[in-house]
Amino acid sequence: MNSASAQPAEVKSNTNQTLLSDYLELTKPGITLLVLFSMSVGFILGAGSGFSFMLFVNAAIGTFLIASGTAAHNQYIERDLDKKMIRTVKRPLPAKKISAGHACLFSITLIITGFFYLLIFVNPLTGLISALTTVLYLGFYTPLKRITFVNVMVGAVPGALPPVGGWAAATGSVSDPAAWVLFAIVFLWQVPHVVAIAWLCNDDYRSAGFKMLPESDKEGIISALTISGCLLMLIPASVYLFMLDLIGLVYLIGAILSGLFFLYFGLRFQLARTKDNARKVLYGSLVYLPAVWVFILFDLFISWLVW
């Protein structure tokens, strides 16, 4: 009797856990965590010796909320297109695990809550940067994906704003060139990352009606030049952060080696525009940005110990 009475509760618990997992998937946790990591680096580097733990926690909470909401609303907007792609057909909305209405309400609630949280508990500038990020991503990048391959460049702008938001959260300003060097690093990283994904998933994107660069560049010449060009600029951009005298040799060596590692895969794709080489560019991108952020934090940690 005890076993029988326990069964419905167990089924309900499993259902709730599954629903929670579906909502979590709607927020694209991998991308959201990278946004949070990028914001954190901007905050810590900007704060320097004036680091405030409570301010950092508030910035992280607000950023997490608005980034999660933006990712979820993107999936809400593209739910009918996601049905047409193999890589997205199992997402919660096309798989009908969550209703469109609930997803819309959930995402808008997160965005509004995150915006006002940053506005009240961090500072107005950080709230405005987060709002700008959301508007650029949902209002410009998302619709442009169905119009022109230039969406790659447009989408890289909101993608590169999180470290600037972190800097603003710590300092209340974005006038320091270092904030925009961080922006440049993420921008130049993101373009090869997205082009590599588009090259690998071109058939999927075409079936959904997305206008990605490989669709207009059958031979891959422009795609390869775009990847190589960004990677060639990425190394001096990362070195410039060292030249601003905010960071030390540990970062410099790590950033150069990481940049050369990433560039190697980009040049291989330049020489042979195959899916295998595009996959290696994607792999290089997944290693590069977290590695550079870790080198920044490790270098700062060492300097704080010495200081």
UniProtKB/TrEMBL annotation:
A GO term from the CC aspect: plasma membrane
Pathway the protein takes part in: Porphyrin-containing compound metabolism; heme O biosynthesis; heme O from protoheme: step 1/1
Main location group: membrane
GO biological process, any: heme O biosynthetic process
Gene3D superfamilies documented for this protein: UbiA prenyltransferase
Keywords: Cell membrane, Heme biosynthesis, Membrane, Transferase, Transmembrane, Transmembrane helix
InterPro entries xrefs: Protohaem_IX_farnesylTrfase, UbiA_prenyltransferase, UbiA_prenylTrfase_CS, UbiA_sf
Stretch forming the signal peptide: none
Subcellular location: Cell membrane; Membrane
Pfam short name (any one): UbiA
Single GO term (MF): protoheme IX farnesyltransferase activity
Reactions catalysed: heme b + (2E,6E)-farnesyl diphosphate + H2O = Fe(II)-heme o + diphosphate
Transmembrane parts of this sequence: 30-47, 53-77, 98-119, 125-142, 149-168, 180-200, 221-243, 249-269, 281-306
PANTHER family: PROTOHEME IX FARNESYLTRANSFERASE, MITOCHONDRIAL
Miscellaneous section: Carbon 2 of the heme B porphyrin ring is defined according to the Fischer nomenclature.
Protein's recorded name: Protoheme IX farnesyltransferase
Organism of derivation: Natronogracilivirga saccharolytica
Classification of source organism: Bacteria, Pseudomonadati, Balneolota, Balneolia, Balneolales
Gene name as annotated: cyoE
